[in-house]
Amino acid sequence: QAISLRELDDVTSLEDKLGRSLTREEKNRIGVSNLRLFLEELLQNRYIESVPSIIPLLEKEHRAASRKLRKVTQEISDLDEAKLKEKARLFH
After folding, report:
1. Mean pLDDT of 30-35
2. For residue 46, what pLDDT is reported?
3. From CA 2, how far away is CA 50, in angstroms rounded?
4. How far from the centroid of its chain's Cα atoms is residue 89's Cα?
5. Cα gap 61→74, rounded to integer Å
6. Is a pLDDT exceeding 90 seen at residue 29?
7. Is residue 47's pLDDT more than 90?
8. What sections of the sequence does the record tag as coiled-coil (predicted)?
9. Cα–Cα distances in Å, from 4 out to 26, 32, 33, 39, 50?
């Protein structure tokens, strides 16, 4: 609420200094709320621009994680009681 009031004060102050009413376009460029909207839009555009370069990196990480998961799964399957007994028997 304080921010909204401050923005209204800023518009009124500018109109007084200029001696005329501000246009809608001019009002849309004043205040923290409009700055926030501008920055959010800028951030979203940068994110969308970055997606094509991020996807290959994510795919590479996915492949690496999948390989590690297969390896760990294989190691866990080797811990089967029957397999361990057989390995112990062969070692003995």
Report:
1. 87
2. 95
3. 36
4. 54
5. 20
6. no
7. yes
8. 55-82
9. 16, 9, 8, 18, 34
CB neighbour burial string for 19-41, b if at least 16 within 10 angstroms, e if fewer: eeeeeeeebeebbeeeeeeeeee
Confirm if 30 and 13 have CB atoms less than 8 A apart.
Answer: no
Share of the chain above pLDDT 70, in %: 100
Give the whole-angstrom CA distance, residue 87 versus residue 24. Answer: 81
DSSP result, 4-44: HHHHHHHHHHHHHHHTSPPPHHHHTTSSHHHHHHHHHHHHH
Token pair listed for 54: 């991020």
Q: Quick one: pLDDT at residue 39?
A: 95
d(CA 65, CA 24): 53
Mean of all residue pLDDT scores within the chain? 91
